[in-house]
Every structure is written in C-alpha cells, then in structure tokens.
Design goal:
The N and C termini lie far apart (104 Å). The chain has one domain: 2-enoyl-CoA Hydratase, Chain A, domain 1. The protein has helices at residues 2-17, 21-33, 47-55, 91-103, 121-132, 150-155, 183-202, 208-215, 231-236, 246-270, 283-293; strands spanning 57-59, 67-77, 88-90, 109-119, 138-146, 159-162, 167-170, 227-230, 242-243. Helix content is 47%, strand content 17%. By secondary structure, the protein is of the alpha/beta class.
Length: 294
C-alpha cells in the first residue's frame, strides 16, 4: 500500500513539473483576457508563469493592439550549453514561441528587442529565417548592442530600429576550439560567411560588397577584424531602417497592423456590402413614370 501511494505521488509530481510552452502560452492569453481580479496578478507559485518569465517574453493586452514582445539578450546559445554564469538566449525556447505567435489569431504583431553579443551562427540564422518568414507585422529594436549574428536577427524583421546609443559589430565568422588547418576549413568559413552576407543584404538596404568590406576591415578593432557601427552609422549604411526608441517601434508596429487590417480585413468585409446612399430597386422607374405622366 505504501509503495502504491509513493508511486502515485511520484507520478503526480512529474505531471506538475512537466512544462509545455503551448499550454502556458494559452493560459497566459486567457489570464490577460480575464477581467477577474484574481487573474490580474500573476501567481508566483505557478511554474508555468515562472517559466514564461524566465524565457523573457510578454503578451501585452492594454495597448492599441495585442502584441507579443520577445527579447533576445546576452549570448545566443546553440547546440552546446554555455556556462551558467553566461546570460543566454536559448534558440530552442524561441522557436516554439514564434510558431505559437504566428498561429495565434489574437496576436496582431511582434516586437523584437535585441541586446546581444552574438553567439551560435546556425542557431542565429535559424531564428532570423523564422523572423523573416512570418506573415504578421514584425518590428525589431536594437538596444545596447546587436553584434555579430545579432545583425541578421535585427534586419530579419519587416521594419528595424536602433537606439542612437546602440552599436552593431560586423565581423567575419570565427570558431572556438580545435580547428584543422586545412583548405576545407577555410572554404567552410567562406561559405558560412557568404550565407550571412546574402541574408543581410536581402533583408536590408546594404550592398553585399559593402557588408563584406566592413566585415574585413583591419583598421578599427585592435584585437579583431571588423567594424563597429553606432546607431546613426548603421542607418546611414542602410543596415537599419531608422533611429528610434520604444515608442517609435511601437508606433511603427501599430501602423503596420493598421495597414494589414485595411488590406486584409476591413475591405474584405465591406467589399460586397451595398452603399447606404444607393436608392432601393425600383425607385428610379417609379420616378420616371411620374415624370412621364406630368
């Protein structure tokens, strides 16, 4: 009997500790939509809410539209787990969030806040491709820094902003750890750098040759090869669309949502509706007959 009870307790604890982002995301949407005072404040004892807070994203429900704010901070963690003292953004956490955001009909836009030093190239490019492939309006804002693989992440949004005090570092691909000094290794680096250059040039106004020139600059960084662009220079080079802060990014996102609703929402509902000024059928004929009698 004791063994059976212990087994049930163990099974119940495993169910309580299990976490699925999709369920937490739905619960968060319900809590934001609830008008009950009991649901106004997040429950700190709820492991699902705690997980969402750890991921670093929030679903706003008090503004003009319902938007999802996603933060990419620290170092982008890829296939290898970084030391615990590193501030990281795990790409396996971001990917399911993006799928849920794209499929959630109540969410009307995505705001991406970046302050990253870069990280895993393949993980960063995977996230950038997902950002670029979203149909919902997306706006990115670089705060502090958007370095290395953070550059493709910043330009992947449909509209990009950068704070005047923020910086972006453009440099060639590097690898940590053991590297074989053979021609195939350098060819692999060149192909990966070409992937980054092509993506950035296709999603920004910067020429690919100019991006490669800035990445291979040897006259600016003391211990590295590359170029550091501050906010105004990033806009001048065509890498970022404009200077701005949080209010500018939100205003741009609201305008994009308005346009999206106008192009795909309101016009479709009003296209086949008759005009209020249109006279009823048969009125014109009756008027003609009365005029003819006169």
């Amino acid at each position: 009997m004791n063994q059976h009870q212990n087994s049930q307790r163990h099974h119940t604890k495993r169910l309580e500790d299990s976490f699925h982002f999709e369920d937490a995301y739905v619960n968060l949407a319900y809590e934001n939509n609830s008008d009950s005072p009991d649901h106004a404040q997040p429950n700190s004892d709820d492991p699902q809410m705690n997980k969402i807070q750890e991921i670093g994203s929030v679903l706003t429900n008090n503004g003009k539209y319902k938007i999802h704010c996603l933060t990419i901070i620290g170092q982008i963690e890829g296939h290898y787990v970084l030391p615990s003292q590193n501030k990281t953004t795990k790409y396996e956490h971001i990917i399911p969030q993006l799928v849920a955001i794209e499929e959630e009909p109540e969410i009307e836009g995505l705001l991406i806040l970046l302050n990253t030093v870069g990280g895993d190239v393949e993980a960063g490019l995977a996230l950038a491709e997902l950002f670029a492939g979203m149909k919902k309006p997306t706006v990115s804002l670089v705060l502090g820094g958007g370095h290395s693989i953070g550059v493709p992440l910043a330009v992947a949004a449909q509209k990009s902003f950068i704070a005047p005090s923020a910086t972006m570092t453009i440099h060639p691909v590097r690898m940590n750890g053991l590297t074989l000094g053979v021609p195939q290794t350098f060819e692999y680096f060149q192909k990966m750098q070409q992937r980054i250059t092509t993506f950035v040039s296709e999603h920004s106004k910067m020429d690919p040759d100019r991006f490669y020139q800035l990445a291979m600059n040897t006259e600016e960084l003391v211990m590295d090869v590359g170029t550091v662009l501050d906010g105004p220079d990033a806009v001048k080079e065509g890498l970022i669309d404009g200077l701005g802060s949080l209010s500018d990014a939100l205003e741009c996102l609201y305008e994009m949502i308005d346009k999206n609703k106008k192009d795909h929402g309101y016009e479709e509902h009003t296209e086949n509706k008759p005009s209020l000024n249109t006279a009823p059928v048969g009125t014109e004929k009756k008027t003609k007959k009365r005029t003819a009698k006169k």
